[in-house]
Amino acid sequence: MKAAIVTIGDEILIGQIVDTNSSYIAKALDKIGIATHEMLSISDDKQHILDTFHSLQNKVEVVIVTGGLGPTKDDITKKTFCDYFQDSLVENEAVLAHVKSIIEGFYKRPITQINREQALVPTKAKVLFNQVGTAPGMWMEKENTVFISLPGVPYEMKYLIDNEVIPNLVQKFERPYIVHQTIMTYGRGESMIAEQIEDWENNLPHFIKLAYLPSPGKVRLRLTARGGNEELLKNEIKQQVEKLDLLIGDVIVGYNEDEPIEVVLGRLLTKNNLTISTAESCTGGKIAATLTAVSGASNYFKGSVVSYATETKINVLGIDNEVVKKYGVVSAEVASEMVKSVQKIMTSDYAIATTGNAGPTKGDAQADLGIVYVAIATPNSVFVEEFNFGQPREKVVDRTVSKALELIYKEILKK
């Protein structure tokens, strides 16, 4: 089965907001065996919407549209649906009662005519009741395609997807099973991994596909199996992952896309009752932000010093000015002093320090652009590694964060 996701709104096309709805919908569809064939963002233009509907008709089984259901004149989705289905709008009593309860009960004001118009729906539409907002969803069918219209407000869209759309799709269609398994790797490039696992990849069963999903410092490998026997798919995926582990187990840090290395690291620290701190220069606090984005980080994260300026390294971390003068602010020696200092200040078991020249200019540093030093302090030792992450600046910072988390993770595993 195939689906298309269409977001309507000029605010998306001009970059004013980011379309997060499509990714949420695609994930929800994937879980019930419906593959997203394409995603489109289109303008608030009647003819553009109609042309899009015509192009998708019978090409996919499901079209999910978000946006354009608000009460103002620029929201034209309902009227366009009527034109496409040769229908007219009618006031839905249940929706009107709900709108009144929100406006009069929550906002404590009389309902207006614009508010009442939220209760207008096409006569041929199956109403998808929106418990958390005023704009109802609509389900309409034409020939071999179901058209579903949802509000663009993310929390309203999510409610309708989870409570109305998915249950109705499951009831209407027989679907194949889709089983995914994501393998998270750190510290080895896509091409090197591909070379190592080439024979394994070439011998995958025909119903299993492999995708490489690289990003700075890490590569996700996603296995996708499709078929009619869910148990068979899961067993085959499991066997293939076990084979893969024998080939690249040294760079695998997890098997769940929702559990990146900071989550796995946090679990490892918690399990071993260990703590960690950071002293960051070129990464500007991004390592600390990544670690503390994980629920429960207060159990193991002691704190951070973002010593971006040279004087902060000297005045706050207590780095000897003579060390800075002799070796430079971007150096293994300064990184080593930074990590030892923050470990002592925060009384943590482990610590990370970064100093580097992320660019685009050198600033106080004499090191080449892209040079970064990552220091790791353990309860018994300190070591520093040098990297050249090139340019641009964003790449240097992201790769430094990934490398620092990889190094500390591997070090704690040795415990």
How many angstroms separate the termini?
A: 48 Å
Strand arrangement within the widest β-sheet reads: 2-1-3-8-7-6
Rg computed from alpha carbons, rounded to a whole number of angstroms: 27 Å
Largest sheet: 6 strands, mixed
Low-confidence blocks of residues = none
Overall pLDDT score: 93
- What is the tally of helical segments? 16
How many individual β-strands?
Answer: 17
DSSP strand (E) fraction?
Answer: 25-35%
Question: Which structural category do the helix and sheet elements fall into?
Answer: alpha/beta
Give the proportion of residues in helices: 40-55%
Shape: globular
Write a structural description.
It is a single chain. The strands form four sheets. Strands 2-1-3-8-7-6 form a six-stranded mixed beta sheet, sandwiched between helices. Strands 14-13-15-16-17 form a five-stranded mixed beta sheet, with helices on both faces. Strand 13, helix 12 (286-292) and strand 14 (301-306) form a beta-alpha-beta unit. With 415 residues, it is α/β, with parallel strands linked by helices. 41% of the residues lie in helices and 25% in strands.
